[in-house]
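Contributing new records

If you add data, match the layout below exactly. Sequence lines come first and carry their own label; structure lines follow with theirs. Keep one chain per record. Anything else will be rejected by the validation script.
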Amino acid sequence: MLEQDVSESVHPASRGGLSGDVRVPRLRAVRHRLALSQEELSEKSGVARSTIIKLEAGRDAWPSTVRKLAQALGVKPADLQ
């Protein structure tokens, strides 16, 4: 049985215009400032590492995903945008 990587928390960047989708261009910088690896942030936030990789590469996220990441990083969601 093959396991698919289906992430409901990431949208392709090319889908732009969907209301509610959020870009988090400062995610990597905030994560680095706190000296966290992607794996550590994944464990703290409950967001899959593959999703964090996609977000740091410019994909859009659901607001709920941004809230989880912000809480784990100790910042406001707006600080990641």
